[in-house]
Amino acid sequence: xxxxxxxxxxxxxxxxxxxxxxxxxxxxxxxxxxxxxxxxxxxxxxxxxxxxxxxxxxxxxxxxxxxxxxxxxxxxxxxxxxxxxxxxxxxxxxxxxxxxxxxxxxxxxxxxxxxxxxxxxxxxxxxxxxxxxxxxxxxxxxxxxxxxxxxxxxxxxxxxxxx
Length: 163
Ligand code: FES
Description:
Blueprint: H1 14-26, H2 33-44, H3 49-59, H4 63-72, E1 84-89, H5 92-96, H6 99-110, E2 123-128, E3 140-142, E4 145-147, H7 155-160
Parallel strand pairs: 1-2
Antiparallel strand pairs: 1-3, 3-4
Helix pairs in contact: 1-2
The protein binds FE2/S2 (inorganic) cluster.
FE2/S2 (inorganic) cluster binds next to helix 5.
């Protein structure tokens, strides 16, 4: 069983205590693995390996089964995510209106490729096929905000709004 003590100070690890609270709410309930994983992911913004091991040990679920679920559903993330999620549309309408240049400009500005997260965890950069705002192409979303009719010169000012 994973130690609930912090490895650096020996005190109670507050995140493990929070995981315990989540597990307690679902104790004895069938089909609760996915909601448990969703709540734990909400704690960390991703699913750290030691959190998955802790869930496995605490619930008696084989770790392979947990990884099977986590890797099957795209909603789960095994790597740290940024505080702000950028989704640059690469659907057809956005592609023909310069979506690729928008993506390349953001990649250059942030120093990361699509699918990665900046070292300071400020941004995660992703691509999407269509976000249903084709009339505003080229489009990107940052968190819940949609930014349309993008041009490369608008991007710095938009990204600067997100800390
Ligand atoms: S193709 Fe980009 S919003 Fe539809």
